[in-house]
C-alpha cells in the first residue's frame, strides 16, 4: 500500500512581527514629534522669541539677581551715593565702561568720553529706555546731567570672546552645532525686533565689520544674546521718505552692503552730500558672515550651512529690494533647526519605513 505523505500546513505569524515593529516605530515617531514640539515651543517662548518678557518689570523699573520686587531706575542721587566703581573694563568712541558694584551686585557704569558726542550718548540712552525687552540689556538707572548709564553686568562679555569662552573647560560641552545655531537664531531675533520695534524700523549702523558687530552684543551666562550698544540706531520710514546713512565717512570692504559703498568710482572723490541713503536691508546683507561666525567649525556645522545656503544667497542679492526681510530669515532658521533636531532624534527612520 502506497504511503501518502502528509504535510501539515503551519501558519507562522511572519507578517505580524513587522506589523508590530511598524506600529512601535510609528508610536515612537509620534512621541518624538510631541517632545520636539514641546521643546521648540519652550525654546521659542523663552529664548528671545517673544519681544516682551513677562518677567520684566514695568517701564521705569528693574529687578536684579535675587530681588523679588521691582525697583525704580536709579536716579542721579542714588547712582552717586550707592554705586561704587571697581575698575575700567572698556572704552569706545562714545562711552567709557566701568565694572561697578551696587548693593553687592556687579553692575556696569557707562560714562560719556567726549562732550562732542553728547548727542550720540543721549540717543543711545533714549533707545535703551524705549526698547527694554528680552533682546536688550537691562537698564538699572541713568543720570542725563552727568551723562551716566547703569546697566546689568554679564561676566561673559561681548560676542567677541565667544570662541574663547566655548573652549573653556566649563563651557566645552556647549560647543556644538545646536547651541551655536541657537545663538544665530537669537541674533536674528534681535535684528527682527529692531526692524519691527515699537519705535519703527531701526538700522544697526555700528556694523561696518564683523568685529564691530560682535562688540555690540553681550553673551549671557545662560548662553543667549542681548544687544548692548544702541548709540547708532537710526530710523527708517519709507512712507515718509526717510532713509539713513551710517556715518559721514566713506565705507569700504565686502562686509558692508553694496549700497553703503561709494557708487561713483575712484575717479570721483567721496562726498557725503552725494552719497545716496539706504534702508534696513544693509543689516540683511551682513547676516551670512555673522551666522558663519556663530556656527564655527564644529561637527555638524557644515550641515547647518548647507541648509542655510539658499536663504544666505538671497541675503547677498545686489538689489536690496530682492533680499528677504529679517522675519523671513528668522522663520527659515527656525524651520532648519526643527528639521535638524527631528533628523537627529530619529536617524534612519526613512530607511526603516
TrEMBL record:
Main location: endoplasmic reticulum
Keyword Aminoacyl-tRNA synthetase (UniProt): no
Subcellular location per the Swiss-Prot or TrEMBL entry: Endoplasmic reticulum membrane
GO cellular component labels: endoplasmic reticulum membrane
Keywords: ATP-binding, Endoplasmic reticulum, Kinase, Membrane, Nucleotide-binding, Signal-anchor, Transferase, Transmembrane, Transmembrane helix
Stored PROSITE patterns: PROTEIN_KINASE_DOM
Catalysis performed (reactions): 3-O-[beta-D-GalNAc-(1->3)-beta-D-GlcNAc-(1->4)-alpha-D-Man]-L-Thr-[protein] + ATP = 3-O-[beta-D-GalNAc-(1->3)-beta-D-GlcNAc-(1->4)-(O-6-P-alpha-D-Man)]-Thr-[protein] + ADP + H(+)
Protein name per Swiss-Prot or TrEMBL: Protein O-mannose kinase
Species annotation: Apteryx mantelli
Gene: POMK
Amino acid at each position: 500500500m502506497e504511503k501518502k505523505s502528509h504535510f501539515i500546513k503551519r501558519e507562522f505569524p511572519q507578517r505580524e512581527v513587522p506589523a508590530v515593529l511598524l506600529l512601535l516605530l510609528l508610536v515612537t515617531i509620534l512621541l518624538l514629534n510631541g517632545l520636539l514640539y514641546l521643546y521648540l515651543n519652550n525654546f521659542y517662548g523663552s529664548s528671545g522669541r517673544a519681544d516682551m518678557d513677562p518677567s520684566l518689570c514695568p517701564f521705569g523699573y528693574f529687578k536684579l539677581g535675587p530681588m523679588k520686587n521691582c525697583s525704580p531706575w536709579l536716579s542721579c542721587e542714588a547712582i552717586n551715593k550707592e554705586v561704587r566703581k571697581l575698575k575700567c573694563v572698556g572704552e569706545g568712541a562714545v562711552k567709557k565702561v566701568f565694572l561697578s558694584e551696587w548693593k553687592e551686585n556687579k553692575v556696569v557704569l557707562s560714562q560719556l568720553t567726549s562732550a562732542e558726542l553728547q548727542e550720540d550718548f543721549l540717543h543711545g540712552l533714549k533707545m535703551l529706555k524705549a526698547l527694554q525687552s528680552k533682546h536688550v540689556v537691562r537698564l538699572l538707572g541713568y543720570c542725563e546731567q552727568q551723562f551716566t548709564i547703569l546697566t546689568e553686568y554679564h561676566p561673559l562679555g561681548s560676542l567677541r570672546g565667544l570662541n574663547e569662552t566655548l573652549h573653556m573647560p566649563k563651557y566645552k560641552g556647549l560647543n556644538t552645532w545646536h547651541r551655536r545655531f541657537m545663538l544665530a537664531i537669537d541674533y536674528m531675533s534681535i535684528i527682527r525686533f529692531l526692524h519691527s520695534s515699537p519705535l519703527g524700523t531701526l538700522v544697526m549702523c555700528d556694523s561696518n565689520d564683523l568685529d564691530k558687530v560682535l562688540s555690540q552684543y553681550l553673551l549671557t551666562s545662560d548662553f543667549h544674546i542681548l544687544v548692548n550698544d544702541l548709540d547708532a540706531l537710526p530710523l527708517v520710514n519709507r512712507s515718509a521718505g526717510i532713509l539713513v546713512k551710517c556715518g559721514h565717512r566713506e565705507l569700504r570692504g565686502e562686509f558692508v552692503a553694496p549700497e553703503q559703498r561709494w557708487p561713483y568710482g575712484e575717479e570721483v572723490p567721496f562726498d557725503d552730500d552725494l552719497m545716496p541713503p539706504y534702508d534696513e536691508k544693509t543689516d540683511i546683507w551682513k547676516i551670512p558672515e555673522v551666522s558663519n561666525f556663530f556656527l564655527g567649525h564644529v561637527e555638524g556645522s557644515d550641515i547647518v550651512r548647507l541648509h542655510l545656503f539658499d536663504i544666505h544667497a538671497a541675503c547677498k542679492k545686489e538689489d536690496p529690494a530682492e533680499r528677504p526681510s529679517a522675519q523671513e530669515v528668522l522663520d527659515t532658521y527656525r524651520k532648519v533647526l526643527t528639521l535638524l533636531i527631528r533628523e537627529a532624534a530619529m536617524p534612519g527612520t526613512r530607511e526603516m519605513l
